[in-house]
């Protein structure tokens, strides 16, 4: 009995450590490629074998292998009884009971997130699981002790609470044909999500810019994941209420903007984050792309409407531009990564939308400048001669005066 407990504990710890190993540093990546080069030069290595090895190394979220292993995991959880009430599962040490709870919670939330990401049905259904929410010591209770420690166990517990709501959204909202019933259920889910968020300890919630948080890199990453998980529940809940996905409403658009802003902030702040929960790439792919998709649909839908200026707020365009630049220049994901094709395709689409918006707005500004009213024609500030500041006779060093003068150009006015 003692040997079995020790082996189970070691296995769970090694499994968690293995997840962290996948986020290798740049030096490890270089060493990996250098060590892989002999595969191409050995005469005994044929092309099919090399391709199989390469595909195996890059098998990540969207691969069939990952989906199959997730199915094996769910089968093992049910076979071991982790889905049942662990509080009365016999004389086992408290630390092992906690590990089993965390293992099931992590698997349950991963099942929901991967299912949503791939658009496939979940394997672990809440109907066949025991979720107790009666007291403070209950694992799936909304209540938290004020002095709860922000660690991987707390992050896993929060992810499971959000996954429960995500399953309700998948089953009860997207599966409900009557819109009135859908609205009623969505309101209940939203109230529960907001109650769960407000019940979190204050030191768990990310309520300020990350650069202003006096927290460790690991804690900051956990707080980021907690906030994104909460916003994703609201995102899915409002998405289920949209009659046409191509016409997102204001509430859904606002949530998408908040998610995108948070993801972009994390990308810019990535050197100060430690991947203690999920990787930054997963956050961009899972949360960021969904939010960017809704925003792009909103921009396209309002392209020629009066609400276009409101929808295409400057900060939104800047966030989309930052996301495009980070992916395009390879600072976030590499070409050999399994999810590069998805990110590259989305990036190209976002880039085309931004280019079209920029060209249309710039052309409109130029038309307004070229066809001013009678009083504006005599304005010396619009005289082209007054803007010959960097000609042959007035060479500029792009110092402070240059930018001050450039800021007065009509095309730079934020109107």
Layout of helices and strands, plus pairs?
Layout: H1 2-21, H2 26-36, H3 38-41, H4 47-57, H5 64-80, H6 94-118, H7 152-173, H8 179-199, H9 217-239, H10 250-268, H11 280-301, H12 308-311, H13 314-328, H14 340-370, H15 374-377, H16 400-406
Could you characterize what this model shows?
With 415 residues, the protein is mainly alpha-helical. It folds into two domains: 1-19 and 43-137; 150-367, no CATH class. Helices cover 62% and strands 0% of the residues. The protein contains 16 helices and no strands. The radius of gyration is 26 Å and the shape is globular. The N and C termini lie far apart (73 Å). The model is unreliable at 16-61 and 303-308 (pLDDT under 50).
Task: For this entry, give a set of tags.
single chain, DNA-binding transcription factor activity, 415 residues, metal-binding, metal ion binding, 0% strand, mainly alpha, 62% helix, 2 domains, Transcription factor domain-containing protein
What is the gist of this entry?
The protein is an all-alpha fold. It has 16 helices and no strands.
Strand content: under 5%
Instruction: Give the mean pLDDT.
Output: 75
Class inferred from helices and paired strands? mainly alpha
Biggest sheet overview: none
Radius of gyration: 26 Å
The sequence of SSEs as H and E is: HHHHHHHHHHHHHHHH
Number of domains: 2
Gross morphology = globular
Contiguous uncertain segments of 5+ residues: 16-61, 303-308
**How far apart are the first and last residues' alpha carbons, in Å?**
73 Å
Please count the helical segments. 16
Total number of strands: 0
User: What is the helical fraction, as a range of percent?
Assistant: 55-70%
Organism: Fusarium oxysporum f. sp. cubense (strain race 1)
GO molecular function, one term: DNA-binding transcription factor activity
Subcellular location: Nucleus
Main location: nucleus
């Amino acid at each position: 009995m003692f040997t079995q407990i020790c082996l189970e504990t070691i296995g769970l710890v090694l499994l968690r450590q293995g997840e962290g190993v996948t986020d290798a540093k740049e030096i490890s990546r270089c060493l990996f490629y250098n060590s892989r080069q002999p595969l191409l030069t050995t005469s005994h290595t044929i092309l099919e074998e090399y391709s199989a090895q390469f595909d195996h190394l890059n098998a990540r979220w969207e691969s069939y292998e990952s989906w199959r292993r997730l199915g094996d995991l769910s089968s093992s959880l049910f076979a071991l009884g982790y889905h049942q009430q662990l509080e009365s599962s016999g004389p086992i040490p408290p630390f092992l009971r906690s590990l089993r709870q965390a293992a099931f919670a992590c698997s349950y939330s991963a099942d929901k997130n991967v299912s949503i990401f791939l658009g496939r049905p979940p394997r672990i259904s809440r109907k066949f699981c025991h979720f107790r929410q009666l007291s403070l010591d209950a694992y799936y209770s909304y209540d938290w002790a004020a002095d709860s420690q922000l660690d991987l166990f707390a992050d896993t517990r929060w992810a499971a609470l959000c996954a429960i709501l995500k399953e309700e959204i998948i089953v009860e909202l997207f599966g409900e044909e009557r819109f009135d019933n859908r609205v009623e259920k969505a309101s209940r889910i939203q109230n529960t999500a907001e109650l769960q968020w407000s019940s979190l300890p204050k030191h768990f919630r990310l309520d300020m810019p990350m650069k202003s948080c006096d927290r460790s890199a690991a804690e900051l990453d956990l707080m980021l994941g907690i906030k994104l998980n909460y916003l994703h529940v609201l995102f899915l809940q409002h998405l289920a209420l949209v009659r046409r996905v191509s016409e997102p409403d204001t509430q859904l658009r606002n949530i998408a903007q908040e998610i995108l802003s948070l993801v972009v902030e994390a990308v810019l702040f990535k050197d100060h984050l430690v991947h203690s929960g999920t990787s930054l790439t997963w956050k961009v792919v899972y949360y960021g792309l969904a939010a960017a998709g809704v925003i792009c649909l909103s921009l396209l839908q309002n392209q020629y409407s009066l609400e276009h200026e409101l929808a295409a707020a400057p900060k939104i365009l800047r966030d989309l531009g930052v996301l495009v630049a980070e992916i395009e220049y390879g600072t976030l994901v590499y070409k050999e990564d399994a999810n590069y094709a998805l990110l590259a395709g989305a990036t190209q689409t976002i880039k085309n939308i931004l280019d079209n918006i920029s060209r249309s707005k710039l052309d409109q500004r130029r038309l307004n400048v070229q066809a001013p009213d009678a009083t504006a024609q005599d304005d010396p500030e619009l005289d082209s001669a007054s803007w010959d500041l960097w000609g042959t006779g007035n060479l500029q060093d792009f110092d402070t005066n240059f930018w001050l003068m450039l800021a007065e150009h009509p095309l730079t006015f934020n109107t």
